[in-house]
Amino acid sequence: MSFKKVNEKLEINKRLKNDTELKKAYDEAQREYEIVKQLVKMRNEMGLSQSDVAKKSGLTQQMVSRIETVDNSPTLKNFIKYIDSVGLEIKIVKKTEGMEYSKV
């Protein structure tokens, strides 16, 4: 049996276009990924280790590590402790019409 090269981005986009539930789940996961990625990037730019964040926030280093893992959903209380300890703030703003999150 021969293998055929598949353009995974094209396949993902096709499936997202045809399956609204999949698209919704994908967009949600993408937003979570972007938030976690931005947190880690900003923490690193500030020269802070996970241990530094743990000491400042009162969380354990393991809890900080879990917050920085996409597959984990921290409590809002712990997320805010993390955000505060690195000198960041959360702002809630209204979405603009037609805003797209999926970037495949």
Automatic annotation (TrEMBL):
GO molecular function, one term: DNA binding
Domain HTH cro/C1-type: 39-93
Pfam families in the record: HTH_3
Segments passing through the bilayer: none
Domain of life: Bacteria
Protein name: Helix-turn-helix protein
Organism of this sequence: Ruminiclostridium cellobioparum subsp. termitidis CT1112
